[in-house]
Specification:
transmembrane; ion transport; 78 residues; ATP_synth_F0_csu_DDCD_BS; single chain; hydrogen ion transport
């Protein structure tokens, strides 16, 4: 094995670890969004429908971060 092969293998491993770390942020974000929505519904049950819609929009934006993380892994990992 030469140094180039070892470096390529390390880069692939680092990209996998990087995406794993990038997935932690959206997971925490979704937990916070859902938790705050449940808290809001508990305080004002009549707004449950509107809060649910806003929750799904917040989850979609938060999950976009995970997609950016996996795309970055493909871009810089290759």
């Amino acid at each position: 094995m030469d140094a180039t092969t070892v470096l390529a293998e390390m880069t692939g491993s680092i990209a996998s670890v990087g995406y794993g770390l990038a997935a932690i942020g959206p997971a925490i974000g979704v937990g916070i969004v859902v938790g705050k929505t449940i808290e809001g519904v508990a305080r004002q049950p009549e707004l449950a429908g509107r809060l649910q819609v806003l929750m799904f929009i917040g989850i979609a934006f938060t999950e976009a971060l995970a997609f950016i993380g996996i795309a970055t892994g493909f871009i810089f990992g290759a």
